[in-house]
Structures are given as structure tokens and as C-alpha cells.
Design brief:
The mean pLDDT is 88. By secondary structure, the chain is of the alpha/beta class. A 7-stranded mixed β-sheet has the order 3-2-1-4-6-5-7, sandwiched between helices. The protein has a single domain, classed as Alpha-Beta Complex (Spore Coat Polysaccharide Biosynthesis Protein SpsA, Chain A). The chain starts with 7 loop residues before the first strand and ends with a helix.
Length: 209
């Protein structure tokens, strides 16, 4: 099926320690009354080829929820952040483009894959494009070309794990999105999750009246 852009796989980044969530697996939490894995899968499955989870645990749970989902661990043991999850993807995925999405996003923009591809095509040197929502750069929510692997590997070998700095070297482009009344574009702690649920509850009461 021709979507107007090259075959693209999806990787959900869920390889962190979730220290501020007391170790809870954020991909299996419900932010909006629906498990994050289901929400992300349903929103993006028609836009990508294969769907992967970059994680070190709970494979059987993921596959019981989404039977055709595929999983991989980081190439190196320990927790090196999303850059290692991105490097490790290229040993597993078949597509030459990968959409990466953090497991804790609250909002997945419509047509995000097509718009990231459009952004990356605007600069012939670009090997990456990332999402910006309401002016906030979400570097882990990005599209990468396979050619980005050598630069990512070099950065990791130098222990430079900043996505922002790496993306400068990749001539990263930006896909800009706006979302009214979006208080949290991602959930990083139990505190934020509680606040997010309270805000949603108040909004539902307000709109119902």
C-alpha cells in the first residue's frame, strides 16, 4: 500500500528504569482509560509496517495484548537512555526508516508519520526529524534514517548520550504540531500522572455541563 513515503517501522521506546514511576512499566499504564500500548498501536498501526517495543521486560504481556508485536533489548546492558534504544533498533528492524515514540506520550498527532517524512525530505543532509508540540521539542518522538546509525554509534562510544546534540549532527528537521489544552505531552512521574488524570476529569465535568 503506497502511503506516499517509504516503508517505515515503529519502535516504542520503553527501555528506561522508570525511577520516577517507582519502576512501573509506563507502556502498560492507563493515562486516558486505555493502556498506552493499545493507544499507540491503534493510532499508528495503519501508518507503519512492523511495530516493535524496545524493552528489557514484559515481552509476554506485550504479545498477549498485541500478538504480532515484536520486541528487542538494548545492545548493551545497563540503561543508556533513548539513544541506545535507537542504535539497537537497526540490528532488528527491516525498514530503512523508523518512527520512534516514547512510551509515555499522551498525544499522538494525526498524520505524524507523513509529516515527519515531509520534514526530513526538506533537507538533503537530514537523517532525522523530530516532533515539536506547542513549542516543546520531543526529541525521542522522531523519524530516523538507517544512515543515522554511524553517527549515533560514535556518540555513544564517546559517552555523549544527548539526543539534542546528536540530532544536530544528523541535521535534524522539525515537524511542528499544536494541541490546544495539552498540559502534559508526556508523563514522567506518578505526580504528573495524578495531575493529568485530575485535569482530564475536570475537563470532562466542565464540557458535560
Amino acid at each position: 500500500m503506497n502511503k506516499g513515503y517509504p516503508v517505515t517501522d515503529l519502535v516504542i521506546l520503553a527501555g528506561g528504569q522508570a525511577r520516577r514511576m517507582n519502576g512501573l512499566n509506563k507502556l502498560l499504564q492507563q493515562f486516558d482509560g486505555e493502556t498506552q500500548l493499545i493507544k499507540i498501536h491503534q493510532k499508528l498501526r495503519s501508518s507503519v509496517s512492523e511495530i516493535w517495543v524496545n524493552s528489557h521486560r514484559d515481552y509476554s504481556i506485550y504479545q498477549s495484548i498485541v500478538p504480532d508485536i515484536r520486541c528487542y533489548q538494548d545492545d548493551a546492558s545497563g540503561f543508556f537512555g533513548p539513544l541506545m534504544g535507537m542504535k539497537s533498533a537497526w540490528s532488528n528492524v527491516h525498514a530503512d526508516y523508523v518512527l520512534f515514540i516514547p512510551c509515555d506520550v499522551t498525544y499522538v498527532p494525526t498524520q505524524v508519520v507523513a509529516k515527519l517524512h515531509y520534514a526530513i525530505r526538506k533537507n538533503k543532509h537530514a537523517q532525522a526529524a523530530y516532533v515539536s508540540i506547542n513549542g516543546d521539542a520531543l526529541y525521542p518522538f522522531c523519524l530516523l534514517k538507517r544512515e543515522s546509525l554511524s553517527t549515533i554509534t560514535e556518540q555513544i562510544e564517546k559517552q555523549r548520550l544527548s539526543l539534542k546534540e546528536c540530532f544536530k549532527l544528523l541535521h535534524a528537521q522539525v515537524a511542528i504540531f499544536q494541541k490546544q489544552n495539552l498540559f502534559f505531552h508526556s508523563i514522567n512521574s506518578l505526580d504528573e500522572l495524578q495531575q493529568y488524570k485530575q485535569i482530564k476529569a475536570f475537563k470532562e465535568i466542565f464540557t458535560a455541563n
